[in-house]
Amino acid sequence: MGVFTTPLAAQFQTIAPDLRGYGCSVTPYGFEMTRHLDDLEELLSQHQIEQCLVLGWSLGGILAMELALRRPQTVRGLILVGTAARPRGSHPPISWQDNALTGLAGALNWVFPGSEVAIACGQKSLFRYLIRQHTPEAYGYLARQGAPAYLKTSRHAEAALFQAIRAGYNRLPDVRQLHIPSLMLCGECDRHITAEASLETARALPNCEVRCYPDTAHLFPWEIPHQVNADIRRWLQAHDADIWPSGPTPSALNH
């Protein structure tokens, strides 16, 4: 989440927790998705946060909306990135060649981040569904943050996510009650959570602005980080009085 927390930290206290089973949050046991919300509520209590903005990317965006439904007095605004209340994907089947080339591209990019050889291999791998703009900057993020995050994702976290997807997760009817200011950002060519699914959620949210970026995919914040953060900054400035009606409470929760 450094692509967001670094610029946001100039204005807010930012907290970017590793969700259960991700990153350094190790768990030896299986769990259900609702445990993520329990953990986030405990985090808010530990830090004595009474009001905050929540920024969530992909699964994090789903949890951001769920947390706002659970804690309407706490969550003052939502920044939703590549996510949806009724997530749908359009990812094609994955072949063994895809997996092999992705492993090779990841290894090359780990050793030579953003190099021409890593990018050339990446364009033939599954990276082509994660990003559209194969730039050294995007591959730098993949090497420094994407690969470590992927390697630290536990089987329990993956199982909890797939179980929720198979159950047909759909919170569209419920997010209509979230009248807080919201910003939906999505990549036009996202195959993991389609732009159509993100835009459907934006229409359901009563007070939501939208930015859909052309020629970008699920990892678009790493493809066009400066544009994304500029749009977030403009949205925050435009909605400052709506988010903090009694004065600023500078806390932001990112996941």
Number of domains: 2
- Briefly note the structural class of the backbone: alpha/beta
Sheet having the most strands: 6 strands, parallel
* Helix content bin: 40-55%
- What gross morphology would you assign? globular
Q: Please state the average pLDDT score.
A: 94
Total helices: the number is 13
Flag low-confidence runs: none
The CATH homologous superfamily of the largest domain corresponds to: Alpha/Beta hydrolase fold, catalytic domain
**Extended strand count:** 6
Distance between the termini: 7 Å
Provide the fold topology.
Blueprint: H1 2-8, E1 13-15, H2 34-46, E2 52-57, H3 59-70, E3 75-81, H4 96-111, H5 116-122, H6 127-130, H7 136-151, H8 155-166, H9 172-175, E4 182-187, H10 195-204, E5 208-213, H11 220-223, H12 225-238, H13 240-243, E6 251-254
Parallel strand pairs: 1-6, 2-3, 2-6, 3-4, 4-5
Helix pairs in contact: 4-5, 4-7
Give a description of the structure.
The protein is an alpha/beta fold and 255 residues long. The protein folds into two domains: 2-91 and 169-254, Rossmann fold (3-Layer(aba) Sandwich); 96-151, no CATH class. 48% of the residues lie in helices and 13% in strands. The protein contains 13 helices and six strands. The protein has helices spanning 2-8, 34-46, 59-70, 96-111, 116-122, 127-130, 136-151, 155-166, 172-175, 195-204, 220-223, 225-238, 240-243; strands spanning 13-15, 52-57, 75-81, 182-187, 208-213, 251-254. Strands 1-6-2-3-4-5 form a six-stranded parallel sheet, sandwiched between helices. Strand 4 (182-187), helix 10 (195-204) and strand 5 form a beta-alpha-beta unit. Helix 4 packs antiparallel against helix 5 and helix 4 (96-111) crosses helix 7 (136-151). The longest helix is centred in the middle third of the chain and has 16 residues, at 96-111. It starts with a helix and ends with a strand.
